[in-house]
Amino acid sequence: MLNLNWFKYAAxxxxxxxxGSLIPWFVVSGMILTIIGLVIGLGIAPTDHQQGDSYRIIFxxxxxxxxxxxxxxxxxxxxxxxxxxxxxxxxxxxxxxxPTGAIMTFIALWTGAVWGKPTWGTWWVWDARLxxxxxxxxxxxxxLSLHAxxxxxxxxxxxxxxxxxxxxINVPIIYFSVxxxxxxxxxxxxxxxxxxxxxxxxxTGMLIMVFAFxxxxxxxxxxxxxxxxxxxxxxxxxxxxxx
Amino acid sequence: MSQSASGFAIFQGVIARDLRxxxxxxxxxxxVLIFFAVVASLFPLGIGPEQNLLMQIAPGMLWIAALLAxxxxxxxxxxxxxxxxxxxxxALTALPLPLVVLAKTxxxxxxxxxxxxxxxxxxxxxxxxxxxTVGILFLSLLxxxxxxxxxxxxxxxxxxxSRGGGTLLALIILPLxxxxxxFGAGAVDSYQSGLGIEAHFSLLGAMLIIALFxxxxxxxxxxxxxxx
Lengths: 243, 228
What we know:
The structure holds two protein chains of two kinds.
Chain A: H1 12-44, H2 58-84, H3 88-120, H4 128-149, H5 153-185, H6 200-232, H7 237-242
Helix pairs in contact in A: 1-6, 2-3, 2-5, 2-6, 3-4, 3-5, 3-6, 4-5
Chain B: H1 2-24, H2 26-47, H3 51-74, H4 79-83, H5 86-91, H6 97-111, H7 113-126, H8 131-158, H9 165-176, H10 178-192, H11 198-227
């Protein structure tokens, strides 16, 4: 283990190969986990005695919401590595994660709205969780648009990385501030803490779906990263051989 | 000793220079103020002139108007110096870049945020806010607008190298300044509803202190990326 060369795959060319051989594993395990999770979630898990069957959206909603926040942190981590150590691959990984994070945030918001309509009777509430999730979506948009607006790729990587890091400092502030802000106006809002305690099958199904979303996110990010590598290294000889 | 003295002289010099530039072009600062007033007067037109409703939304609305007005002038902190090359020269002075950035941010605040806070009482009176609430609003803007300049300076640095500056700058900065808006407007709101303002003001103050320390480093880093 000690002889492991951690930097072996820092070269885009080697990483391209590694990602290529890893992607099928993540795709297959993601598909298997999705099928198991959906079977448990939609078939085996009991109907909720308060919300009926509409609660079943948690099998998409909760994993997406968790991934949206986790991916932002991972993205900011790789962006910081790319900025500090001038590692090109880390910056490319950060950029590959951003669209998936934005999509996860959007899915969490959208499924939340779809869930909210039958259970709370409204599509949208300016609640702490919802508002902070929306701001998170704007942070992803800011990262992506800043990157897209700078022509020099290295400058774009570094500028966007700085923004991602500043955004991380802001994420907990946003989360808590909106919480405090709202409690001044209205009473406690709907939260997971108030939901009825979950049956074991519900929890199992949800956790399996979380892992399925992990596999999907990793697979898609790696795939996007491979494309980025090809695009940025298009002048290199090995790319011509690969294509 | 003489080194630090000269450093402080440069710091003052940068502030004085930027303020002189702002004074020579009064129309820029004036445009920010007029924008603030126009947005504030559009709200009653859009919502309707019902006095109780307007009184209720006035603090948050004036805060949002101030926020948008502050966005207008943000890109000017560094953009003109970047285009004519003087930012390169400024980056080479004996003073560390974060301090230069801080000086420029202070000058920007004086020529925009401070003025916004100063005219806010007049606009607040139009919405029938009682005198003491007007005072709280003024204080919250006084405490919050430097934060807008500080956080905004990071975005101003980041968008230097990009095309399509203004809109992008707003997209980047507005999510980051939501806490400022929440606590700034929240302070006035909670005062109006009879709750204390200490919590909001303490948090605004805490954020200001943290931003005073960290934001100049972040914007200096963003300028270095643009300059390299």
